[in-house]
Amino acid sequence: QVHLVESGGGLVQAGGSLRLSCAVSGSIFSIGAMGWYRQTPGKQRELVATISGSGGTNYADSVKGRFTILRDNVKNTVDLQMNSLKPEDTAVYYCNADLWYGGTWLPYWGQGTPVTVSS
Fold it and tell me: Distance between CA 28 and CA 114 in Å, rounded?
């Protein structure tokens, strides 16, 4: 019943920019932390950026200063603005959101959207 739908992935040249968006829909009472993660073949999924319900942010060292995570608590969306992209940023990017249900936080994930950065 709860869905996270991602958009904005694609192919971009090194040094370019891309903006990923994730919309949360369904039966929602409260959304806690939201975030973006990425994964490449042969590697575990890694944190890219997170943002708390009050707006506090956390970034992986590899993207700090280049990426910005933003959320809209009215539209129930979380975006990832990616600037100065590098080939090393190539991965499938996943959206995450913690939803409150009956006294506990439950994590939900999007389907993933691929990002390819060419050199």
Answer: 27
Number of residues that make up the chain: 119
User: What amino acid occupies position 61?
Assistant: D
Judged by DSSP in three states, 88 sits in helix
- Which residue shows structure tokens 């039966």? 27
Q: Are 45 and 93 in contact (CB under 8 A)?
A: no
pLDDT in tens, 5-16: 999 999 999 999
Is residue 97 within 8 Å of 108, Cβ to Cβ?
A: yes
pLDDT digits (tens, 9 = 90+) for 28-78: 889 999 999 999 988 999 999 999 999 999 999 999 999 999 999 999 999
Which residue in 67, 112, 110 sits closest to 88, CA to CA? 67
Q: What are phi and psi of 87, to 5 degrees?
A: -55, -30
- Strand-pairing partners, residue 39, are 92
